Amino acid sequence: MFILVANKDLLGLLEETEKIKDLISCRRCHENFDRDDHRPFLLPCLDGICQMCTMNIQAAGKTSYECEKCLTEHICIQKNAVSLKIDPIRELLAEIYRLTKEGCNVVCEMCPNQQTALHRCIDCSHFICMDCVNLHSTLRPFKTHVVVKMKDLLKGRIEDLKVLSSASTKQCPVIGHEKESTVLFCFSISCFKPICMRCAITTHRDHDFRDISEVARENETKIQNQIKEIQSKADQADASITRLTHLHENYLQKSKELQIEIKTYFSEAKQVVEMREKTLLNDLSTQLNNEQSSFENEKKRLMTFISSCKGACYYGKISSDINDVPSFLDVADPIRSQFKNLGDQLNENQTILKTMEFLKEPPITSYLATVNSLGRLSVSKAISSKSTAVITSSVCEVQKEVKFEIQLLSSQGKPIVDEDVS
Q1: Who's near 66: CB < 8 A, 6+ residues apart?
Q2: Model confidence, pTM
Q3: Cys-Cys with 391: which of 33, 160, 324, 404 at CB 3.0–4.6 Å?
Q4: Model confidence over 342-401: pLDDT tens digits?
Q5: What are the tens digits of pLDDT across the range 248-263?
Q6: Element containing residue 371 per DSSP (H, E)
Q7: To which H or E segment does residue 256 belong?
Q8: 3-class DSSP state for residue 173?
Q9: How are beta strands 73-75 and 64-66 bridged, if at all?
């Protein structure tokens, strides 16, 4: 928020370090302004650039400078000359800053003695030493001049800055009119500048001119009103930043919530896929257990058959070897009966192992379209509370086609014409 500065002393103004930096130093080279090589020129954006920089721009064959602050290209050179105006405000503040800088000794600007200046002659627009102060009180041409102490000057109000301004700005620049003060302002299209009384009765006698103080007051009033308007717009922009910050925080919070929703949604999808995987693995395990049981039972049957065959053969052999005829005949029938029984039994594997395969159908790639269509991030500039739907027919009948128009509006109430509503 902007705050108007009023009735503050000059030293207090200079304590606002960050603000004063923008006013006393060149935006391009960052050197402090002075009344020599670094004299300040006013850019259209009200920023400042020094004389040396304008010369460097011209020497480089360029005519414009892109301000580092507002990023706007400003024309500085026209017809091989600087087209900008001297900035008296920056020139003045740079002078005051130079005076108040610790350890800065201002040298007398009138005499060649290089003595420290402790006063300023308002009419001469020079800082002067004590010898020159005495000279002013002695010589007739200087007796009417106003001489002030610098320490008293810097204790004044901001409104008193004009005492440091150059007296030459008050003098008429027309040759022969040097002793005349500019007391009028000419409004002629070809002029539009301050003039003296002699100019008014000679070269400007047919022009429209008015008292320069009156024109200045009118301009000051207009500027003060514009300041209020700009301050109001700046306050609105500041409020917009607050709202923008709030919206951004809400957006970040909404983003976090959506992240949780997306993860939850796909977590459920993962659970479904994992359950299917678990089912298939359980089916495979059950099938394997069943086949394993069949395998073990068949193996056990065959081993029992082998054992019975070996036992029967061994018994039949030793029966004929060690028994007499009557005894052998007594067991011959059971032996033959067992052999017949064993002969009737199958001696081959009767278990049929089932062939198992995992059919990858449909292929995973066939689900890509489906997977890619899972969920949708809807990003809309339209605000439902501000949008409307207009139905052409006020009465709608069942199964009858009706026409309607949807008007989508943004948070600022502006129509949205490129919104995806599919």
Answers
A1: 72, 73, 74
A2: 0.53
A3: 404
A4: 888 776 766 666 777 877 777 777 777 777 777 777 666 666 666 676 666 666 676 677
A5: 998 899 899 999 999 9
A6: helix 368-372
A7: helix 212-322
A8: coil
A9: antiparallel
